[in-house]
Design a protein that fits this description.
357 residues, alpha/beta, seven-stranded mixed beta sheet, 36% helix, binds pyridoxal-5'-phosphate
Amino acid sequence: MTHLIPLSSISISNLEKCYVNDALDNNMLSSSGTYVKKFENLIAYRTNTNYAIATSSGTSSLELLLRAMDIGFNDEVIVPAFTFASPALAVASLGAKPIFVDISQETWTIDPSEVMKKINKRTKAIIAVDILGHPCDYDELKKFGLPIIEDAAEAHGATYKSIPVGSLGNAAIFSFHANKVISCGEGGSVVTNDINLNQKIRNLNSFGMDPQRNYWHIQCGSNRKMSNLVAAFGVGQLERWAELIAGRKEVAKQYDDAFKSLPIQRRPVAEWAEESVWLYTLASEKRQSILEACIKNGIDARAVWPLLPENPIFNCDSNGYPIAKKISSTAIWLPTWSFMPQDYIEQIISVIKNVFK
Ligand SMILES: *Cc1c(COP(=O)(O)O)cnc(C)c1O
């Protein structure tokens, strides 16, 4: 059936339209156009980092970054057991092995005390996923002395002890997929303060060409660049950074207020964190009833990702991740986007309240 209220949508203003038209009028569509540079400057500015590389997606950003960090065959990379699959897929695509770690009950992010148990001499990095807009506990994760890759795909605008996500590890990635907090349909970015990583990623992403000699390939590079047309849209969105982040928080606040007295758990927020709202997430033992009621009323609420290690491609047993397993089997996303119509919010609230009547 077609859903009347989608899970997500993009708030598009005249700014995005104006920049896209400008790129068209100037016949600047490839990655060498000026909007790509502007896009990179804006995301670096917002994340308090020195370098940003615009890419075709969050996943391609992870692939580029891991390659630039020389992660490959037989290496191990620590990944949380509860996340969208991208970080684990990117690790596996390089012939390395994702090593799954449970999340903590307090934050739903990777549990540092569990990380410790999985480190050995093959461990090359930790991918810390700022899950559902919540930063990981970076001070604790840094104690292991391993490189930290921050997957901030869902967390534009969140902060850890007042420091913006994106600047907390050796490098970070963002996604600008259609359902993310800031979007350009499909797109991504790596951000870092590491000048060498920046250069390595740019070289890899320019087909592995010698920067001094055109069409002379010194490594097996690829092309995961963002087009100027997409960047033009993205610049419009990035200029609306504060407004788009606040818009989602406003929706979450209404959900919070409405569900206060119901026996459901909102995603927790640590006292050292300022969350960014991606998709509003709640956990309930009555997940099935809530989902059925939503479907019946044309609301595209969804069950969250299944436990990642349980997926056929990773072929692991599902034991050893009790918290991730619990969240995977009880949590739900509610439709969330900036400036979603007020009557949608009220409709969703009323359907969920009815389940508990
Ligand atoms: C969306 C997402 C990605 C991948 O981003 P794409 O742009 O869709 O490739 C990676 N990690 C996490 C945690 C995500 O939510």
